[in-house]
Amino acid sequence: MAQDFPTLEHRSRSTQPGIQELSDPARRTMLRGGLLAALAPAFAACASGRPGPWARSAASPALGFVGVKPSTTDSLVVADGYTATPFMPWGEPVGIAGSPMPAFADDASNSAAEQALQMGMHHDGMQYFPLKPGTSSASRRGLLVMNHEYVDDGLLHTTGRADWSAEKVAKSQAAHGISVTEIELRDGRWHAVRPSPRARRITANTPFDIGGPAAGHPLMRTAADPTGRRVLGTFANCAAGLTPWGTFLSGEENFQGYFTTADQPTQHEQRWGLGKHSWYDWAAHDPRFDTVRHPNEPHRFGWVVEVDPYDPTSTPVKRTALGRAVHEGAWVAVTKDGRAVVYSGEDAAFEYIYKFVSRDRIKPAGGGRSAAQANRELLDHGTLYVARFGADGRGTWLPLRQGEGPLTPAHGFADQGEVLIKARQASDRLGGTPMDRPEWLAIDERSRWVYCTLTNNSARGPGGKADVDAANPRANNTMGHIIRWREDGDFDGTGFEWNHLVLAGDPANERPEARGNAVGDAFGSPDTIAFDPRGVLWVGSDISTSVLNKADNQRLGNNQLLACDVATRQTKRFLVGPVHAEITSCCFTPDGRTMFVNIQHPGEAPRGRNDPAAPRRWSNWPDFKPTGRPRSATVVVRKLDGGVIGT
Questions:
Q1: For the residues of 178-222, what is the DSSP string, one character each?
Q2: Residue range 508-536, pLDDT digits in tens
Q3: Torsion, Cα of 228, 233, 238, 243 (10° steps)
């Protein structure tokens, strides 16, 4: 049974004044549904566009709740008429059948072996997978699959980073990766099913297969893996998508911070952000993270990984055909002829937005094979593109194909594997548009618009790395924006139209770079986004106090989750997180009556610098125990009347 936490309710009746418009999108589109009716049952249950409790009507406005005020307190605030219950925080036992169920230790004394059986640190992208898609129980029992992006060593260990040891490295590695937890709705509350034969932890030491054109490439081979086809682990996992064949896609984001180089990194290492000093110093006790001894190990990270959550015995795969990047995540659309199109972006300033189009069509389950097994190699064959946004509201997808244009051996691209391993350099050569930290994407299959959050980029403009452009129109962009595009013809089109849904920011701000044009409640640094099947876009923020002055922070408050009617650009604040936390993900059960929201790093201090002697200096959420420490957690949001979220 899951550990119980306080259920929080909010009954504020206040709303924010309208925001002054600075500019309007070129066109406004009503998004009426979620993803395409699925080819695989799991996907269909999660993303069906069938009418039902989600359907919008004149009597059910898109944003049918009273917005909440900004908050700067160490609490979670949710709209009137809703409950928000913390669930499965860092350190809770996942519930793996046949394994111990170690409880979380308030003093962080859990061992590395115990941490490998517990929820990891820093909950990020997640998806809900029904156990019986399309049935009446689909919204009552399923698998909650989520990423654990990084760790705070000051909280993870009893003595913080002092006395760094092999055991601390092992525990840090065990707190990364992905969790699969079986959950069920019982007596009006969600509980973890423990033990469960489906529960699983994937960590920085779990074996992965390497698929696609870079599998076996000389740049992927190491002393431990001379074949270049098997790698240990995944880490820095950020956003999450699901596929029509019922698998989970996770992006390996800031992998560069885990490796150490020589005093002078190579030009290639510098382009990828590797340096002499790492964030975690794993190399001190795990030599594969030392590029002097193992120069190819970093090439084995930075991929989109695919996991079959329904089969705990399956080996996850790194999909190299999707390109190596500081991947935020990956999201799948389906062409009219049944091929997969995967969109992704790099959460880094002046990096790129990508699209992959599969060569083959999606196959159904059958012949004793699940849909995941039938499509085991689907993402290994196809074409990768980088986006170029033009000033005229038109854009082009540029193919990353070896031998075409500048992607030749003379420029350092001997074969397609090298193009994919060096996707950044290939995109530089092709002239893709450097963006302001492209993070989450959301796809509407009916209207065929694709949305992407660009969180911020304070280095753009005069004196920075690049000047403003049409797609990234603000210098010193501290507030970010949401861009959208629609392909010509089908999702596999090579041309597209584009515009901005919104420039985020506070309309009362005197600084132009921090002023926004949304209608409704102000927000900054959009990050996680997801459509519900009614066509409402949910937006989570990642405002960093390092890029905002004190007045800005007081106006906007803690990070928040908002609902946006994309037809009118109206935004309404639905939930506000605890102090110094980030809203990292939200997803829904098929009936729309439960929303899962991830709250990451409450009370975050500078990376790894929380004081283990006083871990509650900034926050004590969600336990609020006198001797506890702040923990990332999922929040289960339900309507008091049992209705659909947001109505």
A1: EEEEEEEEETTEEEE-SSBTT-EEE-TTSEEEEESTTTT-GGG--
A2: 888 888 888 988 999 999 999 999 878 89
A3: 70
